[in-house]
Amino acid sequence: MSDVVYPNHLGIIMDGNGRWAKERGLNRSAGHKAGADNLINLLDYIYKNTSIKVVSLYAFSTENFKREKSEVDYLMKLFVTLFNSKLESIKKNDVKVVFSGRRENLPKSVIDSMDKITNDTKNNTKGILNICLNYGGDCEIVDMTKKIAKQVLDGSLNIEDITKEVVSRNLYQDLPPLDFVIRTSGEKRISNFMIYQSSYTEYDFPDTYFPDYDIKCLEKSLDCYRKRNRRFGNA
Ligand code: IPE
Ligand code: IPE
Ligand code: MG
To answer: What is the pLDDT of residue 162?
Structure first.
């Protein structure tokens, strides 16, 4: 494991649950359930078998509230089950769970389960799981700008002292830049995912729908990352 290069910060845009279900004549909820079961396996594998330190998961975008109420309600219930019990392996793997996104508009049951898992894992040190829920990259930049503007107005920050580090500290979470993002289902866009943190991110867009994106698929994506020549502007 130590000789193999892994991204330090991996992002996963878990897409294709609905199409996976449709192909099987199932409702979209069944696709989300299958996606969640797959996610638990992938995370367990990542934190046990790789040196990836931070995983950012796109669980629900600010735009996903446009979906039918029944689908949104199902997803919210799924989040509660995940955070209250299904993510138990995360705790065993010494992973700290944090959230990115706006808390407003989320049901109280979801907020309570988010607060519980955050608190239960706050002293864990081996890895970080950043769950993007009611998250939009554009909203994150707006919210960061407001936080910084308030500090300038109350005199605790000088305009000249605004640096990249200050910006990063005022995002939802102060995380290292994203090295690699995988978006399943074949869509080649980022749909408002961590736009500030992805200035030099490498991408993989496998065709597989998320419920079928297993450990073998993940290893294939990671192999593809290893072949990239990351230049960061160098000649
Ligand atoms: C991703 O799968 C899960 C969420 C956005 C919550 P989708 O539900 O977007 O599945 P498709 O893209 O419709 O197949
Ligand atoms: C992005 O997927 C959001 C998540 C995976 C949570 P969407 O399915 O919502 O994105 P679009 O609408 O295809 O761009
Ligand atoms: Mg989708």
So the answer is: 98
Say if 65 falls within a structural domain: yes
Residue 1 has pLDDT above 60, yes or no: no
Q: Where are the beta strands (DSSP E) in the chain?
A: 9-13, 54-61, 95-100, 127-135, 180-183, 202-204
Q: How far is CA 9 from the centre of its chain?
A: 10
Q: Which atom of ligand 2 is nearest to the CA of 189?
A: 14
In a domain, 152, yes or no: no
Residue 93 lies in a domain: yes
Answer yes or no: is pLDDT of 2 > 80. no
Quick check: is 120 catalytic?
A: no
What distance in angstroms lies between residue 55's CA and the mean position of ligand 2's atoms?
18
Q: Which atom of ligand 1 has the smallest separation from the CA of 19?
A: 14
In-domain check, residue 144: no
